[in-house]
């Protein structure tokens, strides 16, 4: 069914998605990237959730009480699964045990000691160690599973039966077309927080031209990715246009395990060779912001840029590292070797990678670019078979994301442990329950990271979305769930 036909139903909204097919909206089947998780949350609820202010609010847990050793959750007695069975304390306990056995990319349960029922409506989570991000990163992120559905499933990634979409969320999956990349969600009339205000939500894969035409004709209600060049046209047509910071900074990652990049002066020099303002204007048509090298925030416009485009400073740093130019102006390392560095990136970052490589090439540093799909790039990281990489993931959510960026097990994490003071701060902040003390630790860790520069946080793109007056999308401070920078918070469809 096309968008025009879908839009004929007043109880349905149509959302245009340029990619489509983010996998089945089930906790172990959805695509590993943020959109897959967000679509899953329409079907599955967590204990807590973020509202439009970024505040954690009740979901399956009606209330919660924290103390020095753990948290007690009081469950909503009205919550039911889509098949009509009640959501119970046993389901909550089962979920923690199941996710321990079958880990989720978005949830870390290593700090959880035990989970037990202290009454039919209360669940107690005791910590093995203090874990400051628990409410956001676990209670507000981990989808609760129905024990009667998943209890007999030994391999959830192969559990593709329709029952795998049995959640407790505000919507049921009515139709999913992986070939066309489309989804149709139907409101759960028995939802424990009240029936959704929109009866059906259709996600339709559309090219840019078709989505723009649908938006202006009324066949499409929300376009999740609008070219910056179309902003003025859509505003003139009376549509609401929203531009927001994705907090998904693009990093130039240095393979610091390679001797040629092990010298911090070399990494700092390369950072000074990247013309980031030009990158923003050329690749992103102005819809991006300079990012702070400390990792978590945009660069303060009133503060000096420690890695401003400065070829002269780059030259000074390289010479201090023992590098020399040959007769053709190309750099040779302190060992006298010529350079042919390999830069790897996802195909999505083709233009960014080639422009950064061109900046380095223009300064006399040889760089060749190779592009991959996600699986291929992860394999390259697994073999450590690269010199430079263009990588990106969200820095929204709890500041523990900085630890995950630097020390984490993701293929595109820095895996940088050479600075013991930095490692200690990153590790200790996760256990610090005093907000002010923890913020200070995170700030100091960011300063050390910016100086050592295992990766260079360069820029972060802005996203432009457009909608008509049937939809009121909002930006969730801190991101959806663990920190996903999309405007599809299911709260906008709830009473």
UniProtKB/TrEMBL annotation:
InterPro entries: Peptide/Ni-bd, SBP_5, SBP_5_dom. It comes from the Bacteria. Gene3D superfamilies: Dipeptide-binding Protein, Domain 1 (3.90.76.10), Dipeptide-binding Protein, Domain 3 (3.10.105.10), Periplasmic binding protein-like II (3.40.190.10). It is found in: Periplasm. Keywords: Signal, Transport. Residues 56-401 form the Solute-binding protein family domain. Belongs to the bacterial solute-binding protein 5 family. This is Peptide/nickel transport system substrate-binding protein. The lineage of its organism: Bacteria, Pseudomonadati, Pseudomonadota, Alphaproteobacteria, Rhodospirillales.
């Amino acid at each position: 069914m096309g968008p025009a036909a879908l839009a004929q139903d007043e109880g349905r909204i149509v959302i245009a998605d340029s990619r489509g097919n983010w996998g089945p909206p089930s906790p172990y089947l959805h695509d590993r990237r943020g959109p897959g998780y967000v679509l899953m949350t329409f079907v599955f609820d967590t204990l807590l959730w973020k509202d439009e202010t970024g505040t954690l609010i009740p979901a399956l847990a009606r209330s919660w009480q924290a103390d020095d050793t753990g948290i007690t959750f009081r469950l909503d007695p009205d919550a039911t699964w889509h098949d009509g069975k009640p959501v119970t304390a046993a389901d909550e306990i089962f979920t923690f045990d199941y996710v321990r056995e079958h880990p989720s990319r978005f949830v870390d349960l290593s700090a959880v000691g035990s989970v037990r029922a202290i009454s039919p409506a209360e669940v107690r989570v005791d910590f093995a160690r203090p874990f400051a991000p628990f409410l956001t990163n676990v209670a507000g992120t981990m989808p609760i599973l129905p024990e009667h559905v998943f209890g007999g499933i030994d391999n959830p990634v192969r559990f593709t039966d329709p029952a795998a979409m049995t959640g407790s969320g505000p919507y049921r999956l009515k139709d999913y077309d992986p070939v066309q990349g489309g989804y149709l969600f139907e409101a759960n009339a028995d939802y424990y927080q009240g029936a959704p205000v929109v009866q059906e939500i259709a996600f339709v894969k559309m090219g840019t031209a078709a989505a723009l035409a649908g938006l202006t004709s009324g066949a499409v209600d929300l376009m999740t990715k609008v070219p910056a060049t179309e902003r003025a046209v859509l505003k003139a047509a009376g549509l609401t246009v929203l531009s927001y910071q994705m907090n998904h900074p693009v990093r130039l990652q240095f393979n610091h395990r390679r001797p040629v990049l092990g010298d911090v002066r070399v990494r700092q020099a390369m950072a000074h060779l990247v013309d980031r303002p030009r990158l923003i204007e050329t690749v992103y048509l102005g819809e991006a912001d300079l990012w702070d090298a400390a990792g978590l925030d945009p660069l303060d416009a009133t503060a000096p840029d420690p890695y401003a485009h400065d070829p002269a400073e780059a030259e000074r740093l390289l010479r201090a590292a023992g590098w020399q130019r040959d007769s053709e102006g190309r750099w040779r390392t302190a060992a006298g070797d010529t350079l042919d560095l390999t830069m790897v990136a996802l195909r999505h970052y083709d233009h960014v990678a080639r422009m950064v490589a061109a900046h380095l090439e223009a300064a006399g540093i040889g760089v060749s670019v190779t592009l991959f799909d996600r699986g291929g790039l992860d394999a390259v990281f697994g073999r450590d078979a690269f010199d430079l990489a263009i990588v990106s993931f969200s820095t929204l959510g709890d500041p523990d994301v900085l630890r995950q960026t630097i020390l984490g097990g993701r293929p595109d994490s820095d895996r940088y442990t050479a600075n013991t003071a930095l490692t200690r701060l990153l590790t200790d902040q996760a256990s610090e329950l005093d907000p002010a003390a923890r913020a200070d630790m995170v700030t100091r860790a960011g300063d050390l990271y910016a100086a050592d520069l295992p990766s260079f946080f360069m820029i972060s793109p802005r996203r432009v979305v457009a909608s008509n007056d049937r939809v009121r999308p909002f930006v969730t401070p801190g991101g959806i769930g663990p920190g996903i920078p999309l405007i599809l918070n299911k709260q906008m469809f709830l009473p």
